[in-house]
Each structure stands twice: as structure tokens, then as C-alpha cells.
Design brief:
The chain starts with 11 loop residues before the first helix and ends with a helix. Helix content is 70%, strand content 0%. The protein is mainly alpha-helical. It has a domain of 61 residues. The longest helix has 21 residues.
Length: 99
């Protein structure tokens, strides 16, 4: 399957694995929203970051979404997909989930 710009995605299972990691990272941010003894400012910061990431995906603003990822998450996504973060995030189910 080709992405915009002619990039080719790797194996479907590998792509799902990377996106599962990404979805897990977003879920972890959302999980911080529940409190778990974290200071209110930290919980609010996590909530805002998760919300900003989802909004960026919903608007197809991939550079912003990539900038909001933790550096290790972004690097893992790019390495596993053999493509830049912005291209790797361009999957329909991920955008739909963000809406």
C-alpha cells in the first residue's frame, strides 16, 4: 500500500504493531486524566496534550500531531514504518478514532 508522496508501508502486521504502540501512548495520556494521585497541574497537562493530539489528527495536521508525541514514541513509529512520522500517522482508522 502506498502513502502520499509515494512512500510504501511495510508489512500490515508491523504497521498495526506500530499503530498499537501509538494508540497505547495516547491511551496512557488519557489514563493520566483519571488522577491516580498525580498533581492537578500534571493531570491537566496530560489531558490537554491528549486532546491536542486528537484534534491535530482530526484536522489532518500531522506535523503538529508528531510534535505532540514523546520523542521515543515518534522515533519508534518512524523506525517501524520506515517512513516519517507525518506519513505514518495518515491512516483512516486513527483519524476516525480522533474525531
Amino acid at each position: 500500500m502506498s502513502a502520499p508522496g509515494g512512500h510504501r508501508f511495510g508489512c500490515g502486521a508491523q504497521r498495526r504493531s506500530s499503530l498499537s504502540v501509538l494508540a497505547g501512548a495516547v491511551a496512557a495520556v488519557a489514563g493520566l486524566q483519571c488522577g491516580c494521585g498525580a498533581p492537578a497541574a500534571r493531570v491537566e497537562g496530560a489531558r490537554q496534550a491528549g486532546q491536542a493530539f486528537e484534534q491535530a489528527l482530526a484536522r489532518s495536521n500531522y506535523p503538529q500531531a508528531c510534535a505532540l508525541l514523546a520523542p521515543q514514541t515518534r522515533q519508534q513509529l518512524e523506525e517501524e514504518q520506515h517512513t516519517p512520522c507525518g506519513v505514518a500517522l495518515q491512516v483512516p482508522w486513527l483519524r476516525e478514532r480522533a474525531k
